[in-house]
Amino acid sequence: MMIIIRLLVIILFIGFHASSSALTIERYKHQYALLPCTGLEARIISFDKTITMRLSNASKKERTDLKNEYKALNILYKQKRCHKKTPR
Fold first, then answer.
1. Segment 20-77, tens digit of pLDDT
2. Coil, strand or helix: which one is 87?
3. Domain tally for the chain?
4. How far apart are CA 64 and CA 72, in angstroms?
5. Origin, by domain of life (predicted)?
């Protein structure tokens, strides 16, 4: 009986950890919501410069996190109606 309970706890822990560690686009939008347009622009520019290096060393989960972060930054940039000051 104790073995079954322990296995159940381990399975629940692994399932919860896997689902909670992946950041969604909404979580990233919430994380960067307070940045002004210049901060969003700087973050997007630095992301563009390092994306190839970061993707080449990333696991599958990290790749989806990076893509979600990039999408969230661009969505916030458009929602705030920021104007491009420097070419991206």
1. 455 788 898 888 888 898 888 999 999 899 988 888 888 888 888 888 999 999 999 9
2. coil
3. 1
4. 12
5. Bacteria
Q: What is the DSSP string of 13-52?
A: HHHHHHHHHSPPHHHHHHHHTT--HHHHHHHHHHHHHHHH
Q: Residue 18: inside a domain, yes or no?
A: no
Helix (H, G, I), strand (E, B) or coil at 58: coil
Specify if 5 maps to a domain. Answer: no
Rounded CA separation 74/68 (Å): 10
Q: Structural domain of residue 85, as residue ranges?
A: 24-88
Instruction: Say if pTM beats, i.e. exceeds, 0.70.
Output: no
79, part of any domain = yes
